[in-house]
Input
Amino acid sequence: MNPSVVGIVGLGSVGEPLLRAVRAAGHDVVGVESDPDVLARVDRRMKSAAADGLDGGDWLLTTDLAEVARADVVVEAVQEDLAVKTDTLRRAASLCAPHTVLVSTTAALPLVRIASASGRPDRTLALRFLRPPGAGGAVELVATAMSCTEAVGVLEGLTASLGLTPATVGARAGDDAVGLVYRFLNRAVAMIEDGYADRDAVDAAMRLGCGLPLGPLQLLDELGLDHVHAALTDRWQRTGDDTFRPAPLLGSLADAGALGRKSGQGFYTYDEADAAEGAVRTPSPTDAVREGGGAGTADILRVGVAGSGTMARGIAEVTAAAGLPTVLVARSREKADAAVEAIGASLTRSVRRGRVTPDRRAAALGLIESAEGLSALGDCDLVIEATAEELPVKQAVFARLGEVCRPGALLATTTSSLSVAACADASGRHQDVLGLHFFNPAPAMRLVELSRTSTTGEESVAAARAFCARLGKTTVECGDRAGFIVNYLLFPYLGDAVRLLDRHDSLIEETDTALEQGFGYPMGPFTLLDSIGLDVSLAIMRRLRAEFSAPDFAVPPMLEELVVGGALGRKSGQGFRCWP
Output
């Protein structure tokens, strides 16, 4: 059965998009909101959508809860407070016909308690959204042992008509997922509050570097800054865990009424017509995210790559495919030749997949030459060091590059966790050295983190930026600090996930599913750790811990135990999961 009239009480981050989805599906809808300013804002957006010719059911917006009396389904989308939710549903039950189904949008409160307090335990259900409806996440329909079959059928019919993706997350795993994500969002706020990187750089880095559907600041705007601040505060007060303590900027924005998409202003600004869809219309100008060219493009005509491992091969493949003559240098001629042979095999796979034409493969291979010894890089305009992630190794390479490279050549390191300044010191060419952190696999990943030191020259930055644009990459600019943007935010999140397993009721598969279905992440944290490699992840976490003493960066003992036991993830067949 599909209801003809739906009432929605509370028009915030969940209620407003649900209101639009219900109307768009052809149902008549009554929206109830106690705040007149919110009601007026939603009314303007609804009228704007109607003026744009978007068909749907009739709607009524009001401050009077009595208007839901004619609804077949009433959904409360008020604040995550047991007393407020139960009072809302109890009042709705007193107004509505006996057949009306009551729905809570609680993500963590006990539904049995809510259903009992509503006065209609058999007809009180829940829709659990970890992200607001229509934003890419899934919804879980939650019933209790008291729920009647007819009420469940009505809610199933409604969710199907709205095109919502059903999920099975579970309250415990869902709550864990919210805790992991909200701490991650809080760290992102602290990063921009500290001035290390700006909003656009952080969002672009996490979208392109981790494949997230939204950057963390975009997601905060979607969820509602007041909601996330309240949720973090509640967890902090309940647990005493300072990693939940809200960043001051989050609170100051919420106090100022910048609540995100629902208020039209948060970390981004939204116009009335597009706030409902989450489209960012007025991002602030920034130099931190670059997708176009810039000064210095013509200055880099020949590229050198120092190294023969996976990253070195990937970068050489990308530069040659972009039409740049490339010299790949290894410690021996055999290693260099083997690396070029591996690049050829990679390009052949790309031809088979239709990503590269046979002619382009041949042209790229024709531009790559192998060599033994760093002296072969003397005539290169840019040299990219991609050797082992060990500072003494990199310093030795840069000392030699400082001797053999032509004056003015740009020198870059691919490190993600070591000091770029230390490499610059070793080279003796401070203004010519910067970090270019490519992501693996380099041919496929669009992101490059461009890290500059206090002595990197502006011309060097412009040339590196233009070079990355020629490769088809997006650069995000940041300072010389361990982890840069992506690893600094990603690995504390992964560490938090591992520490959940110290609790008896935490399960690996359920947590991964909650992040994937509830937030639309491409992988849950445990699958991601296995994919990166537990040994690689442990090394990065240790490096971050050495640099930062905050509890966020503590290395989980369980991760160390797995690595010592040889469980390295997918590559060893055993990690947090058993891989075939």
About this structure: The CA atoms of residues 124 and 195 lie 47 Å apart. The radius of gyration is 27 Å.
